[in-house]
Amino acid sequence: MTVVDEVIAEARETTNRVARTFSIATRLLPRDIRDDVYCLYLVFRTLDDLVDDCRPEAEERVAAVEHWASGGNGVAPSREVGILRDLEARHPLPRHALADFCAGMRFDLEGGTNETEDDLDRYCYQVAGTVGLTMAALLGATHPDAPDAAKALGMAMQRTNILRDIDEDGGNGRVYLARDTVARYGGSLAPGAREALLRDQIARADALYARGVAGIALLPRGRRAIAAAAGMYREILRQIEREGYGARAGRAVVPPRRKLFVAARRAAQAT
């Protein structure tokens, strides 16, 4: 097995193990692009995990991608840069988006907080809207409206993650929601005391989904996969609603059969 084969095998395994929803969607991608998407996901996931786990090498690995994104083309100083250089040989990667992703990683490394909704939008763009931009590039998007839609869809998914993980993040000492919004709705994130806050935040996420989903038709490839991913992630919001807007502690989990039904329906609508 070559080094490239080993990276692809790890990328596939990582996606299937830690990103089950995304893994379902990637199976709908054209075969000739699927492994590149797995490898791109491995880059984003590796950096995110290094930062979340406060690993000592996190800063160095983020800095390496920053150097590459700023125009550095020397010998690949990290595995992530090596993967990105390989992908760039086949796809016009938006380096500015990778630089912005690294800014989001630095925000987390420094324990930053979001004071306002504008701050939260910026953070969601940095850590997820940038992923949408890069994915759109891999899928060959060239329409001038495609970048805004790709960013919006990534941001919607990140806001969904934040709402799903309120209790888990709180247990780790992190609050990603905007502080002024939390204060406006009573200042409590405790189960049973956050319905009004969650209604507000779900509406904001749904507005981003509407922008993002409207742009799926602009993708020349992979529309079924992206539509399925968007549908499955958006269904998490519906699950939060069904469970009483955080009436109980813990994650809102969409039942597997429901998730697959939503994925199939959205994919069919995108063909």
**How confident is the prediction overall: mean pLDDT?**
94
Low-confidence spans: pLDDT under 50, at least 5 residues? none
Backbone shape: globular
Number of E-state strands:
0
Q: What is the count of helical runs?
A: 13
Gyration radius (Cα, Å) is 18 Å
- How much helix is in the residues? 55-70%
| Fourth-level CATH superfamily | Farnesyl Diphosphate Synthase
By CATH, the architecture is named: Orthogonal Bundle
Strand content: under 5%
Description:
The chain has helices spanning 3-18, 20-26, 31-52, 58-69, 79-88, 95-109, 117-138, 146-164, 166-171, 179-184, 195-214, 223-242, 256-269. With 271 residues, it is an all-alpha fold. It has a single domain, classed as Farnesyl Diphosphate Synthase (Orthogonal Bundle). The longest helix is centred in the N-terminal third of the chain and has 22 residues, at 31-52. It is globular and about 50 Å long.
Can you give keywords for this protein?
single chain; 271 residues; mainly alpha; Farnesyl Diphosphate Synthase; globular
